[in-house]
Design brief:
Layout: E1 9-13, H1 17-30, E2 33-37, H2 40-50, E3 54-58, H3 66-75, E4 84-88, H4 93-101, E5 106-109, H5 114-133, E6 139-146, E7 149-156, H6 157-230, E8 234-239, E9 245-248, H7 250-256, H8 260-263, H9 276-290, E10 295-303, E11 309-320, E12 326-335, H10 337-382, H11 389-414, E13 423-426, H12 427-441, E14 446-452, E15 457-460, H13 462-479, E16 485-496, E17 509-518, H14 525-528, H15 548-558, E18 562-568, E19 572-580, E20 604-608, H16 612-624, E21 628-632, H17 635-644, E22 651-655, H18 663-673, E23 679-683, H19 691-696, E24 701-704, H20 709-723
Parallel strand pairs: 1-2, 1-3, 3-4, 4-5, 14-16, 20-21, 20-22, 22-23, 23-24
Antiparallel strand pairs: 6-7, 8-9, 8-12, 10-11, 11-12, 13-15, 16-17, 17-19, 18-19
Helix pairs in contact: 2-3, 10-11, 10-16, 12-13, 13-15, 17-18
Length: 725
């Protein structure tokens, strides 16, 4: 390097920091003073301040490329004499012409050798120095046509010749490199061919062996893949580090409802419901597994893609590496949702069986109590004048007693030990009575509104209609927040399909439309779709069985009606019940019988019941009707009395359940003594005795307690009249 070189200032314009630093290091090592600009805009600004003697610029840069930078430098009066070298990997003729057209003095192609780069830079500097000493050359404008495009170039002949010579030198340099590379490649190819030939024969044998092994592996993998994919249980491979799912079979996809792409990478614990029970189970399983304890048949709930809960039986097995570290977990899960459902149904059936047994156990005693309450109330009412306060009070007692009687029948019906009794009833009376009872039981924070706009008659079981009201209104009350709300019950008459009610599943005709609405929390569409499923409930534990709405749905269907629901979360719900109305022209229309007065008589009756209260009450009622009554609280005493005077009695009324001798046994012995003796068998409840069985042995009538005064009067008179022929 000569002395002048140390005074040369070079400006590098390069957007690649690595390329710029490498070029700067080469030039500075040789003695040049170097400055660096990151792009064309910055390079133009630095050129004005730095006053370089040579500019080396990359072509492809953001904001301003090398061509544009060269144009602006050559257009600047202060900088136009500074040589510009374009540094690029582009060496096409088009790029050379574009370089000339923008005034570039030379170009260097990437990648470059250090010696080649320095020689070009030195030559460009020396050439520029000589031209400064000579007279300036006249610039000429020529048109060059390249690739169907014409470029107008304005430059001195020497500049054009130097630029083209530089391109030629570069091409020659590249050609030499290419020839050397080709020679080296040829030698390498010959060596490689020789080695390949030497190893081909040996490899052929190994290839054949490998092919046989691979084929065997493919067959084995295919067999096990088929077993894996078609296994009936859900199988998972889980990453032990983060519990993410690596792979699963089709049964797992069916269980959770995801595709392979969706479930891959999911955390296994994300499939457990985020509930207190789910969190607890998740912790138990994780703790047990981390302690190295086996996980076998752990029953837990999982949530599928649609949000529904499924029951699974989970087993986990660790897969360890050579260091004994668990790297993978193999999981098996059996879908036991159906089994759990059947278990729940079995538990519910057993519970219902227990309820039925309990109902039968209490029905007899409870009906005996009701018999006394109702009987003595009727006796008291018969002695009181119309309009007295005491009579009004006793009438309410009588209504309450009958409602208690209906509740016993409801329990027996629910436990399938009693038949429904369909009657012609005026539904508005049942609604008002139910609301009166509800008002006394619901919180005062709930306002009850009734809107009875129609009076109508339906053919129904009154107890079940009352049950519909109680279930719907109780559900509505549970849906109210702690601050209460409004419960609205309305009854209107609609004609389908004349009225636009949106009901298409019912035959046309008149219907009574009962609507129960609340301003409670409402229901989401998912809940709304399942509310009539047996055992489905969203209530807290011990606040519901999930049977209330299922019972309502069943009752409405058994009455030939329809129930629909409207609900908005946060605003409340409305249940619409449609029950067929009995019209004057309807086939089911019957003229209600007028209440008949007590049937009277003078015959002698033997009345047997182990409850002294019932004996005394019934004796008083029958004696007021004119009958002569002998009452006994012991079936043994009654039998002895009858044996002494069998012809004295015209009728025997006996309870079924009594100590020593049951009513059934007493009846058989009385008939043996006197085959023509009329007998009425009364019972609070007995699952073994039916009306058919009673009449089979000669019992004339079979009645359920509690029996009303009018029913008792009519039954006694009918049996006595029938016995006389």
């Amino acid at each position: 390097m000569n002395e002048a070189t140390t005074l040369i200032k070079i400006l590098i314009v390069e957007d690649s920091a690595i390329q710029a630093q490498m070029l700067k290091r080469i030039l500075e090592k040789t003695g040049y003073i170097v400055a660096v600009a990151k792009n064309g805009v910055e390079g133009m600004a630095m050129a004005g301040e730095y006053r370089p003697e040579l500019i080396i610029s990359d072509i492809v840069m953001p904001e301003m490329d090398g061509f544009e930078l060269c144009k602006q430098i050559k257009a600047d009066m202060q900088l136009k004499g500074v040589p510009v070298v374009l540094l690029t990997s582009l060496t096409g003729l088009t790029d050379i012409v574009k370089g000339l057209s923008c005034g570039a003095d030379d170009f260097i192609t990437k990648p470059y050798e250090e010696s080649y780069l320095l020689s070009r830079v030195n030559r460009i500097h020396d050439t520029q120095k000589l031209r400064k000493e000579d007279k300036p050359l006249q610039k000429e404008t020529i048109d060059l046509r390249v690739a169907d495009e014409t470029y107008r170039v304005t430059a001195s002949r020497n500049q054009i010749i130097d630029f083209l010579l530089s391109a030629y030198e570069t091409a020659v340099h590249k050609q030499k490199d290419l020839i050397n590379a080709q020679e080296e490649l040829k030698a390498l190819n010959l060596s490689l061919e020789k080695k390949v030939a030497e190893r081909t024969e040996a490899l052929n044998e190994k290839i054949q062996e490998q092919k046989a092994i691979e084929e065997e592996l493919r067959e084995s993998e295919s067999r096990y893949r088929d077993l894996y994919e078609n296994a009936p249980n859900a199988l998972f491979s889980i990453n032990a580090r983060d519990n993410s799912i690596i792979e699963c079979n089709q049964a797992a996809l069916n269980l959770f409802g995801y595709t392979k792409e969706e479930i891959a990478g999911m955390n296994l614990f994300e499939l457990y419901p985020d509930t207190p029970n789910g969190k607890t189970k998740r912790k138990e399983i994780a703790h047990q597994f981390n302690e190295g304890l086996p996980i076998r048949d752990a029953e837990l709930q999982v949530r599928n893609k649609n949000g529904h809960l499924e029951w699974g039986s989970l087993s986990l097995k660790p897969v360890k590496n050579v260091d004994g570290e668990t790297v993978e977990i193999r999981s098996t899960m059996i879908n036991i949702s159906e089994r759990k459902k059947l278990e729940k149904q079995l538990q519910q059936a057993q519970k219902m069986e227990a309820i039925g047994t309990l109902a039968g156990g209490i029905a007899h005693d409870f009906n005996n109590i009701l018999s006394a309450v109702l009987g003595y109330t009727e006796l008291a009412l018969s002695d009181l004048p119309e309009g007295s306060n005491t009579r009004d009070h006793l009438e309410e007692v009588f209504k309450a007693g009958n409602r208690a009687k209906d509740l016993v029948n409801q329990i027996l019906t629910f436990s399938r030990q009693s038949e429904n009794q369909f009657l012609m009833v005026q539904i508005h009376f049942i609604i008002k009575e139910a609301l009166k009872l509800l008002r006394a039981t619901l919180p005062t924070t709930i306002e009850i509104h009734q809107n009875i706009k129609a009076l109508g008659t339906i053919f129904a079981d009154p107890t079940q209609i009352h049950q519909i009201m109680m279930n719907l209104c109780t559900n509505a009350a549970h849906a109210m927040p702690e601050n209460g709300g409004e419960l609205t019950v309305s009854l209107i008459r609609v004609n389908l399909p004349d009225d636009e009610c949106g009901i298409n599943n019912l035959p046309p005709g008149p219907y009574m439309n009962l609507t129960v609405s609340d301003t409670g929390c409402g229901m989401t569409p998912d809940v709304l779709n399942r509310i009539f499923e047996p055992y489905y409930t969203t209530k807290e534990k011990n606040r519901g069985t999930g049977l209330g709405l299922a019972v309502v749905h069943g009752i409405v269907q058994s009455h030939g009606g329809l129930v629909t629901v409207e609900s908005t979360p946060g605003k409340g719900s409305s249940f619409h019940i449609y029950l067929p109305e009995i019209t004057a022209s309807g086939k089911d229309k019957e003229t209600p019988k007028a209440i008949e007065p007590d049937s009277r008589g003078t015959e002698c009756i033997l009345f047997v019941d182990d409850e002294p209260t019932i004996v005394q009450m019934s004796k008083t009622i029958l004696e007021k009707m004119g009958y002569e009554v002998a009452g006994r609280t012991s079936s043994m005493e009654a039998l002895e009395l009858f044996k002494t005077k069998p012809e004295k009695f015209d009728l025997v009324i006996t309870d079924m359940t009594m100590p020593h001798i049951t009513g059934y046994q007493l009846s058989r012995q009385l008939i043996e003594i006197r085959p023509d003796i009329p007998i009425i068998l009364c019972t609070g409840f007995n699952e073994k005795m039916t009306e058919e069985a009673a009449k089979k042995i000669g019992i004339r009538e079979f009645v359920m307690k509690p029996i009303s005064r009018q029913a008792l009067s009519q039954t006694v008179r009918k049996v006595l009249d029938d016995s006389k022929g």
